[in-house]
Structure to design on (65 residues):
């Protein structure tokens, strides 16, 4: 069973050309996508598949988990 989706989301973001910008507050990370106009905030612990899919959608990536 998958413990969390954070590692999968980071791998998909990297594979689609997104770049890590900086650490945010707490365990959040700020990423930049070539497809999105705004920065993407990725939580360090993503427990919900729906949250993971929302982050990918914000990045302009059609992949779903």
């Amino acid at each position: 069973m998958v413990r969390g989706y954070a590692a999968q989301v980071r791998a998909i973001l990297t594979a689609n050309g997104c770049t890590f910008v900086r650490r945010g507050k707490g365990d959040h990370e700020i990423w930049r996508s070539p497809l999105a106009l705004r920065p993407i905030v990725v939580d360090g612990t993503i427990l919900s598949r729906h949250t993971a899919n929302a982050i990918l959608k914000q990045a302009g990536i059609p992949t779903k988990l």
In short: Residues 6-15 form the longest helix (10 residues).
